Amino acid sequence: MPAGSSAKRERQYEHIKKSAQDRGESAGRAEEIAARTVDKERARSGESKSASKTSTRDPKSASQRGGERSHSGAQGPTRDQLYEEAKKRDIHGRSSMTKEQLQNALGR
Known about the structure:
Layout: H1 7-22, H2 27-44, H3 53-57, H4 62-65, H5 79-88, H6 99-106
Helix pairs in contact: 1-2, 5-6
């Protein structure tokens, strides 16, 4: 957390970090998710020195959006992300599958 953050933002950061770790994210990734989310909330509420257009003009806050834009790029989730999902679902043969094959096996 940046120096001078409010107690509320510190609590928010810790809560988001813990939630991400509970979902199985690594400690580093959980910290990144928490920091980005809190930074965006700070920008929306005018607590930061600078902010991007999407931070200030987006009708939904990051917490309300809940990751609905995740993996929505032109090509969707990466092969590694598909592989991790296949691993969670215990799909056999996943290590030798291509991105397309993983998508088919996951029903995407």
